[in-house]
């Protein structure tokens, strides 16, 4: 069997393009923002560039690290993520996990501030892939196969939900379900879990007024509402961008019309300032990333590598799909960032680590191909 070696370099090139576009887009989206210290556009861009540098170094290390050794790190990483998720829920932890915009999603560790749910996303994909590969055909049984995953995943999902961060909660459950489905879990079990997740989502939305207002605004977009204001302004901005955009930093929707234009709605800013051409370039890059990632998964040397590649590729692809869907008004508003592009160093570093791990799977597959056919 002949295996080409171009997937890992191409994946790294796509990620580098997205990161570069992201730094430029963050600068443009925040160029007119000011604080008591003055404009913050350059500051945000420099912070993002620093995160890219750190993430790049870690990604290179991950690419050279045999991905099979991640199995031993699955439980420690999951435990670390659980501890970090617990800290914001503790009432006495406000000094290091303050409430920002009504949520406690960040933990200040001194030198760095991390978003525990981003680490949890990576850890859950890794742990689920490890255990699913270990169980093998036992996944066909709900009691012996699927139920043990729920014992661990549901408490973690509950902690993310209590931040509160419903969209990330649903995302990590979806990613875990995707890995289990790829591992051979029964379709009926998968649909049962999906129905349970939707039930949790409905209860979480119905009990919180602002979430219900967002859903109502999505279902009734023609009715004026405060909850649908940002999505409406996002569409206005994208429409104003036309073919080539209004120019870097010249967008108007970031001037109080769209909040977090540099993170939650950065695709809208790109559509306005870079136009259809810029938005299309971004979509094509993500499409190519997903295609290469699943190609690596399809020919991985073993079940663990295949499931890990599926989960990490899905984490980037699904996040991008949901973020772009929100900006276009085809998905209810969420707080998910655009991987590699949105401002946020935790998300950026985790996304780059995923690239490194995918490259490691691709490199191992190449070594296996030279030695002969790989068998699970």
Question: What's the structural blueprint in terms of helices and strands?
Answer:
Elements: H1 7-30, E1 34-35, E2 38-39, H2 41-64, H3 70-86, E3 107-108, E4 113-114, H4 116-135, H5 142-161, H6 166-183, H7 187-206, H8 209-219, H9 229-241, H10 266-298, H11 303-327, H12 345-371
Antiparallel strand pairs: 1-2, 3-4
Helix pairs in contact: 1-2, 1-10, 1-12, 2-12, 3-4, 4-5, 4-6, 4-11, 4-12, 5-6, 6-7, 6-11, 9-10, 10-11, 11-12
The gyration radius over C-alpha positions equals 21 Å
Helix content percent band: 55-70%
Q: Low-confidence stretches at least 5 residues in length (pLDDT < 50)?
A: 368-376
Question: Structural class of the helices, strands and pairings?
Answer: mainly alpha
Count of beta strands = 4
Strand arrangement in the largest pleated sheet: 1-2
Our estimate of the beta-strand percent is: under 5%
What are the secondary-structure elements, in order, as H or E?
A: HEEHHEEHHHHHHHHH
- Give the distance, in angstroms, between the N- and C-terminal Cα atoms: 15 Å
Number of domains: 1
* Outline type: globular
Query: Sheet with the most strands?
Result: 2 strands, antiparallel
Mean pLDDT: 87
Compute the number of helices. Answer: 12
